[in-house]
Write a structure and sequence with these properties.
The protein is an all-alpha fold. The chain contains eleven helices and no strands. It has helices at residues 5-22, 25-47, 63-94, 97-101, 107-114, 116-135, 146-174, 179-191, 203-209, 213-227, 235-266. α7 packs antiparallel against α10 (213-227) and α10 packs across α11. The termini are far apart.
Length: 272
């Protein structure tokens, strides 16, 4: 039985990007070391913080466990956001964008597959962060509800992939301006709750945080990893993520397709 053509295309993209990345092995090592340094810094900062004053009882009362999950997943979701626009810019710089989008593969499929390797390799990096957190810094994840974590992770990736495709659409049209990445990155960093609990914010900021998808994601991930919470405990967060993702994903693909058509019509695909 022959594999569907999409699998051959996915393998071709993965093989191409792996060969490119393998020629820059030091980059992976340096990125991993940088994450280790940041984890060490956060660990010692956590030792100086009175977790009770931060209201972390619902997350086990330990700041480092709280921030390990926030930092690890925030970094991955940020990559999911930027990988698509980065792929477009890379193809523009190498002069391959017009050729790639001119094949029988649809533009939507091309942009999704072009970021597949980055998402998978960064997943390996994310797993390494948690291995280090568990083995070196003694974070206890023994209660983790991994099915809940997996569902939350996939729903959140869907949301950020959608934003990433929107970002790539702006790059195609505007070349240098990318308001989607700027807005989402800023909101996630300030209001996402990756490094401090939302309860420490003023009331008006907490109200704004309810419109930031990563707040729902990190809450569900922390509940699942630290407390072993079930699906019923975080159903509101999962429903919010699913609703955003299912609405935004097809819309982002449609917008990207129209951005490609506009760039082709204006003859600007090869411009950077």
């Amino acid at each position: 039985m022959n594999s569907p053509p999409i699998l051959y295309k996915a393998w071709a993209f993965l093989k191409r990007d792996f060969l490119i990345a393998s020629s820059y092995q030091l980059n992976f090592v340096l990125t991993s070391l940088n994450s280790l340094f940041i984890l060490t810094l956060l660990y010692f900062i956590g030792g100086m913080i009175d977790s009770r004053s931060l209201g972390l009882e619902q997350y086990g009362g330990d700041y480092f466990s709280f921030v390990l999950i926030g930092y690890g997943f925030y970094q991955y979701f940020q990559l999911a956001l930027t990988s698509f626009s980065s792929a477009i810019q890379r193809e523009q710089l190498t002069g391959c964008l017009e050729s790639m989008l001119g094949t029988q593969t649809t533009p939507e499929t091309s942009i999704l597959l072009s970021s597949l390797y980055s998402l998978l390799s960064s997943l390996v990096h994310l797993v390494l962060i948690f291995i280090v957190g568990s083995l070196v810094f003694r974070v206890n994840l023994g209660k983790a509800n991994f099915p809940l974590v997996l569902v939350t992770f996939l729903l959140t990736v869907l949301v950020f992939v959608s934003f990433g495709i929107l970002s790539a659409s702006f790059v195609l049209v505007l070349k240098k301006g990318d308001p989607v990445t700027w807005v989402i990155t800023t909101l996630n960093f300030i209001l996402g709750g990756a490094f401090f609990p939302l309860e420490q914010m003023p009331g008006w900021m907490m109200d704004l945080a309810r419109f930031v998808p990563v707040t729902y994601a990190l809450d569900a991930l922390r509940q699942g990893l630290i407390n072993g919470a079930g699906f019923t405990a975080v159903w509101r967060s999962l429903t919010s993520l699913a609703g955003i993702g299912l609405l935004l994903f097809p819309a982002s693909l449609l917008i990207f397709n129209r951005a490609v058509r506009k760039a082709r019509r204006e003859g600007t695909l090869i411009l950077y």
